[in-house]
Design a protein that fits this description.
Blueprint (H helix, E strand, L loop, with lengths): L3 H11 L8 E2 L2 H7 L2 E6 L9 H10 L3 H6 L1 E4 L3 H12 L4 E6 L4 H9 L3 E5 L3 H15 L2 E2 L6 H17 L5 E5 L4 H13 L4 E7 L4 H8 L23 H8 L2 E5 L1 H15 L5 H12 L8 E6 L12
Parallel strand pairs: 2-10, 3-4, 3-6, 4-5, 7-8, 7-10, 8-9
Antiparallel strand pairs: 1-2
Length: 312
Amino acid sequence: MISKENLLETQQRIQAFIHRTPVLSSQLINEMIGADIYFKCENFQKMGAFKMRGATNAILQLSEIEKGFGVATHSSGNFAQALALAAKLQGMKAYIVMPSNAPQVKKNAVKGYGGEIIECTPTLEARETTLTEVVNKTGAVFLHPYNDYHVIEGQATAAMELIEDHNDLEVIFAPVGGGGLLSGTALAAHYFSPDTKVIAGEPMGADDAWQSFQKGEIVLQTNPQTIADGLLTSLGDKTFPIIKDHVSDIIRVEEEEIIAAMRLIWERMKIVVEPSSAVALAALIKEKSKYKGKKIGIILSGGNVELTKLPF
């Protein structure tokens, strides 16, 4: 299990390679919701998303021999970019299996960071089969985008920083896809701010985490349909137990609620966030009556949005 000491060591290990991102607030959004809200802006992280934290921590744990063979993963977007950049900063090769329908902006970024893209058909089976072929051929170390304890430790550092900046938060909201960010956030709150509740936002069209949470066991994602392209994956056997033990609730939101929250952030805060980032705010807006007068943190997970396909 990940300990408090593991998280403190992770924070020390990765801090030279990541940005300590700013925490912003909006008077208008506070008034709309009737609460004090603090947005942890991981859209300003290197490569534009929190995933840089987990990718960096996982790479720094490799032996020199492993580093020589490089790293490999399958990802439709942000972890692909994060691993490519983290590997580049350590002078390593990164092999990234990406589905053919991944956003072009994310493919371009992976190439820009020096990652080698291997495309496959857009199914989980094809991703895993192609990845196995790449690993067998190159000897690269497979790093899972979220179901990996070192990755979870890295993702926890976003909430650790938020808690350091605002140590009296009553609630922290984060989006959930595979659960790397959510499980890390939950552990950060558990160890460093135990009175703070952690709540997840999830798209209604990809609500496997909510189903898993209700059932008490992992329900696999099937045919997810959502604009939040960073939240399409199923929970893992490492992320789910942490979420089950330390997350208070998962709130599902409709597509129009995600788009409205995204637009609100763009218009009122003047910052670029991707749809997945807006899911946490959408969840808070949906149930705002429960959170009146509270001090709330929201993790804005990333800003890698395809500008030619804005939903508003």
